[in-house]
Amino acid sequence: SGHSGEEHRPFYVSVDGIAEEVIVETLSEIEVSGNGTTKGSTKKKTNAVGASGRPKPHHSGCVTTAMPGTIVAVKVKVGDKVKAGDGVLVIEAMKMENEIQAATTGTVVAIHVSKGDNVTPDESLLEIQPD
Question: In terms of CB atoms within 10 Å, which end of the chain has fewer, N or C?
């Protein structure tokens, strides 16, 4: 039902006062399954990524934020041992600095953010392999 040339359409949105270009892909194929529901031609990825390119939280060791903000400090590095409750990141949100704590005890295996990055609640900011 899309017109030719409309497979990738840019939209512009404002996120925290910063204009961002978002490309929306139009699905050209739709399958109807036996029960009458429709599904797109894309397969669900187990390690989906958000608009920022950071992975979506996919296990209990993924550290996230409750609100959008800016990373002020990364307090750990890959390989560090952390305990549940340890401060691992500092985020500035709504003009206040908030410490983000590890939810689980384990080893930091991935850090997906750097100081100055804008982050949202649907992203994994860092990952801890639980002990």
Answer: N
